[in-house]
Specification:
Layout lengths: L4 E8 L3 H11 L3 E6 L3 E6 L2 E6 L11 E6 L3 H10 L9 E3 L3 E7 L5 E7 L5
Parallel strand pairs: 1-4, 5-8
Antiparallel strand pairs: 1-5, 2-3, 3-4, 6-7, 7-8
Length: about 120
């Protein structure tokens, strides 16, 4: 993954409304994007900070994920698989916005790669 940069880091939160209020009103981060009770994204310098709420119906323990931005998700995934990386779940997609997939490091920390949709020509 040489040359990749961190795109965003995200945390699971139990109450997205409460978490958005904290990061926006208490910490003063600019809210960039929100999708109901499922996702909120903040401007946080060189990388973005995301909050994943319970809107998907999945409850998780507190924790987060570091996500690396890539230009070609399929190529990077194949390369990582040849290096022994096992992907935890199937590929996800935010329709028309991005495709992503997650995997774990040797200690069980969650990492991800994301490819954003390109503007139509």
């Amino acid at each position: 993954m040489s040359g990749r940069r961190i795109d965003h880091v995200w945390f699971w939160v139990a109450d997205l409304e409460r978490a958005v209020a904290f990061y926006r009103d208490v910490l003063g981060l600019k809210l960039l994007f929100r999708t109901g009770d499922e996702w909120a994204e903040f401007e946080a310098g060189a990388a973005k900070l995301g909050l994943h709420g319970p809107g998907s119906g999945r409850r998780r323990s507190p924790g987060g994920t570091v996500v690396f931005r890539v230009d070609d998700l399929d190529a990077v995934r194949r390369d990582l698989e040849t290096r022994g990386v096992r992907f935890e779940d199937s590929e996800g997609e935010a329709q028309g916005y991005a495709r992503f997939v997650h995997f774990a490091d040797p200690d069980g920390n969650t990492l991800g790669i994301i490819e954003y949709a390109r503007a139509p020509r």
